[in-house]
Amino acid sequence: MLSKKRLLLLSILFFISGMSGLTYQVAWQRALYSAFGSDVDSVAIIVSAFMLGLGLGALAGGKVVDKYPDKALEFFCFSEFGIGLFGLISYQLILFFGDIFIVYNLLIVAIVNFLLVLVPAVLMGATLPILITYIAQFWKNIGQTTGHLYAINTCGAAIGAALTGFILFNYFELNVVIIFAAIGNFIVSILAYLFFKKAQIEKS
Amino acid sequence: MKYFAWSISLLVGLMSLGQEMLWFRVFSFILGGQPFAFALVLVLFLLGIAYGAGRGKMMCTRYSNLFFVGGIVLTIAGFTDIMIPFIIQFTLQENSILFSFFICCILIFILATLMAILFPIVHHLGTNIANGKIGSSVSKVYFFNIIGSTLGSLLIGGVLLDYISISSMFIITGMVCVTLGSLMIIKKTAVSVTTVVILGSICIGLVDKHTNYIFANTFKNLSVNNYVENRYGVIHIVNDDKKGRKNIVLGNNVYDGIISINPDDDINDLNRLYLLAAVHPSPKKALVIGVSGGAWTRALSSFPTLQTIDAIEINKGYLDIIKQHPEVSPILNDPKINIYIDDGRRWLKRNCDKKYDLIVMNTTYHWRSGVTNLLSQEMMEIVKNSLNPNGILAFNSTRSPDTLKTAQSVFKYAYWGTLGFIYASDSMIKLDEVVAEANLNKLILDGKPLFSEESKQRESGAYKKTLITKLLNLGEVEKLYNLDRDTEIITDSNMITEYKYGLWNK
């Protein structure tokens, strides 16, 4: 049985994960504008690349967690840690690729944008089905599980977007804001790992 | 059942992201392109989604006929969508723009909530818990939702808004939602499904694709001459009858110049451009970043030594505006003027082999979203790379002293001219009255001298205004503005003119 305390902890972690996710999206969008241009086509490319990455991540996350259902929390930790690691180098990476590929046509730019956000977006997309699978072991109602996690994650995302757009950009540079988001991912990853370890010990 | 749930998941994603794109444009317009518009739409949308997902979760445990419940929710969302343009039109007509803004905030939240209620419901309907493959069946529903969201941003934001106005797009998305909702509610027989789809398609086909309910009542004291709406934004050409000003250009609800090149009455201060003729001995190649209504490019074409003018504009809608105004329309057929539709900074990076004697940017307000890309130190380095040794960069600081500090960090000389127009170069810029007069006398437009003898005597004329320009250095500007802080260098990363020292933080 999933105790209320554990559900609360998992919910908080997924909330922070959502916060980091939207902080990245707002910050990366700005960095990508500087690197590749800020016209409507760039906007559409960036949003689409991000969404497509999330979708592929969701598919991959679902497949993997079905194959190894006992390792759901480990996958979640891995995903969050991976997002954080990418976050740390993302700003420099975007500028570097922008300098190289800006001279190419729209198709190449679209592919480069897609590849740039692919790794973190896939990992972000994977976290929802992974956690749903974990909690559904206890709740059995998919609608209830999805609704709960989606609401928590999205609430975090809203706070992340608000913090970034209204406060952080007033006080910190873009690259620093991205590092804050990465720290959020590391915190989530470490706490989820400790949570998982404790659950394992109790089980045995 | 799962295929139907996947389809609903995809279409709900498409409608949701499409609506987010539409709301972002409406908010950008209402807020005049302030940088927090995007974050605000995102926050309201996400809060609505979070609340809606929670409500959906509750419905999944309370109701057994989730198709019916989901259908009702989607139908209500659809009717709300259809009402949006009319609600905004009404509130703008009767109340202040601030009140309309609050109404829009509430509407975003309600709509996002309604759409998000569907999310857990379609997951519930499309997931098979019995076969032990929860992860992959959940992820498929989620995947279709995200594919729909991707299509929503690409289709609606990237393509359809070129052919359908924002108001009409709201009505059409509403009709799609009502049709989908009805499909969820009805008993699924071939006849009933076909009937609903045909009826829905007919209604969507009948919608006028160019309605203008949302922006029709925005300007209470101005009369609208011309209006262009496309996927790049909304442009209005208005008259201010009280002040007797005509052909004022508003790009996304913010002043973007005046279509006038009248040298006798220099209402749009083209003297800031003519100063370049006064101080540069013989410019041959010029670049204009931001054509807007075309007045600056047209005025620049009067420089007799210029052989080529390249002009970059990000919104192709301005070309339609220019076509309709004979004062500026010759720039479209002038053989020495080449107009490109592109992002200015990207164009410069892609054409770094081209060198110019003059680069002119009549930049929009320094606090608007994305303007850092034109005012930052990084951009000035790019511009410097495209200038000939004696070349001059002239741009509009819109009175942000930090822009002068930034220009000074890149160029040897940077000065603050009329209305904060900045002139930067690695060669000294000096306004010698005798040389300036001689150069201004050489300006020719349509085969005639730009300045007649009478025009030269007018106090409000461009000739006199150019000659009395005072060029200030950074120290003088800091003293003039009496800032209680040090001026700072703008970078791509700190975005200070948009945020730290933006419109609300001065």
Automatic annotation (TrEMBL), chain A:
Residue ranges crossing the lipid bilayer per the database entry: 41-60, 72-97, 103-136, 148-169, 175-196
InterPro entries listed in its UniProt record: MFS, MFS_dom, MFS_trans_sf
A family per Pfam: MFS_1
This protein's record includes keyword Transmembrane helix: yes
Domain Major facilitator superfamily (MFS) profile: 6-204
Protein name in the entry: MFS transporter
Keywords: Membrane, Transmembrane, Transmembrane helix
UniProtKB/TrEMBL annotation, chain B:
Coiled coil spans: none
Record field: transmembrane: 34-54, 66-91, 97-122, 142-160, 166-183, 190-207
KW Acetylation (keyword) present: no
Keyword terms, alphabetized: Membrane, Polyamine biosynthesis, Transmembrane, Transmembrane helix
SUPFAM superfamilies in alphabetical order: S-adenosyl-L-methionine-dependent methyltransferases (SSF53335)
PANTHER family: THERMOSPERMINE SYNTHASE ACAULIS5
Protein name (record): Fused MFS/spermidine synthase
Natural source organism: Frischella japonica
